[in-house]
């Protein structure tokens, strides 16, 4: 039996963060992870994170993973990979399967940061090869550089379904439909909008009836459901696809905690241990951090991990109570700010109709994935002005503020409440630098110049696809729904290191189309 | 199937090409990538057939949890191909129930 001050199960965002904080306090820490690589799911997350600076906002998930690993390494954290923790017993004894041998460890404190596993949903044909989890799609395209399929139907409109749909498009797959049985889009509206403007159709109040094919997926039939989840006859729609991707939620992997005898509870965030504010369970010295204690974002998991790591240090006498509360004060504040807004854990299942500012939410966004033309004008980031100015299509209260931080001219204001919708300070002059366009994790900011040329407007939009259009390319402007609406010409392409792979395309469109044009496709060469 | 250049991740890390066999056929894949990925690129979707009803199964979770993608690798059944790295000369066989098809 080997003894450690602290044993951590799981080398994802929560586990690594906990290990770093505990190691900083001088604890002898070991982290076990069943995977061949550390980092949990962070290395599959290629989108920019939400939040503010202290939450690592506007940094892509995999970069955050790299930073965490480096930090863990710098502080001498020992990470054992391909190590499956199979038991957690009284007195914090831990059994681990390493190379088909069971090894025995004991921790004076233990932090369980095992994360979550994907939920599944059954339908006729769900076991066919070609039906995959959204996590599988992310793993294949972002870790192994392989497209999961050519034509994909996504089931689930939560953030995972939306983000993975966008990643599928970035990988060069066709997403034929995004389907959810719920009547409203579950994830962030801005994630939905960036998928919709690429031309992906949303089918809310729809479910999969059948995956077709003898030995692998060849097609799928969906149908509408009523308010009591019953199929509406005659609403069937068929799509030819080779892949069906399921993004129907996550469940905490809390089995080890239950096994250890923790008091558990059923919550909307899953079957989780009862914890205090530091993540300590009813068993002193046994902590839970990250998704295992309730499904949230990786940003929250990292803060929970840091808090649990410090609390474990206090539990073992490496810190006194006062030092602990001092150290976790800022962390708790950062965590609370992530738990604000309309997607806050406390708002799960609640019907919200207005923003915190009292503005009616966009119904079209919730039903179809994009804000309607008549709805967009009522949001404070959407204004008209002479010359170049930002148009911020941010319509939901999400804890996020990089746009305010990056604007060198201080045109964009969110204020102290991080969930407030961004507003524009009309007294400040926009320089057209585009920092806000690239920094917006939701890709919801555009630069507009209605007086670019007589009769023409210039619109700058964020672009994360290949091939990258070049100056002079002609094509079509797409509206928020992804419909081609008018001819457009690329007049500028900006690529900068600080934009981190978000290129800024500026296109010229007829001025009467400026309010609608939100995406660009190169004109297809019909003679080819 | 392979993504040669990704808008965010760029070009994938270069890996050595290796040969392996799939039900006796010689195929090529990249050393160290999961067996399931090499098979996917080669167009193989069916990894096994269930014992009782003989239903096809393939990749499902791709992270080693669901065990739907298990195959017989170098004679050993129930190998999770989505997390087992490909090596030169590996013998990979479709799994029927819990074994390879008897030839």
Describe the structure.
The complex is a heterodimer of chains A (528) and B (103). By secondary structure, chain A is α/β, with parallel strands linked by helices. Chain A folds into three domains: 2-117 and 250-339, FAD/NAD(P)-binding domain; 121-247, FAD/NAD(P)-binding domain; 374-522, no CATH class. Chain A has twelve helices and 28 strands. Chain A has helices spanning 13-24, 61-74, 134-143, 159-170, 189-196, 255-259, 298-315, 321-338, 363-368, 373-376, 402-406, 435-439, and strands at 2-9, 29-32, 78-80, 83-89, 93-98, 101-112, 116-118, 131-133, 151-155, 174-180, 202-204, 206-212, 219-224, 237-239, 243-246, 250-252, 264-267, 270-273, 286-288, 389-392, 412-413, 423-424, 445-453, 456-463, 474-478, 484-494, 503-510, 519-522. In chain A, the strands form seven sheets. In chain A, strands 1, 2, 3, 4, 5, 6 and 19 form a seven-stranded mixed beta sheet that branches. In chain A, strands 20-23-24-27-26-25-28 form a seven-stranded antiparallel beta sheet. Chain A has a five-stranded parallel beta sheet with strand order 8-15-9-10-11. In chain A, helix 1 (13-24) runs parallel beside helix 2. With 103 residues, chain B is mainly beta. Chain B is 7% helix and 31% strand. In chain B, the strands form two sheets. In chain B, strands 2-1-7-5-6 form a five-stranded mixed beta sheet, with helices on one face. In chain B, strands 4-3-8-9 form a four-stranded mixed beta sheet, with no helix packed on it. Chain B is globular, with a radius of gyration of 14 Å. Chains A and B meet through strand 8 and helix 3 of A and helix 1 and strand 4 of B. Chain A: Keywords: Oxidoreductase.
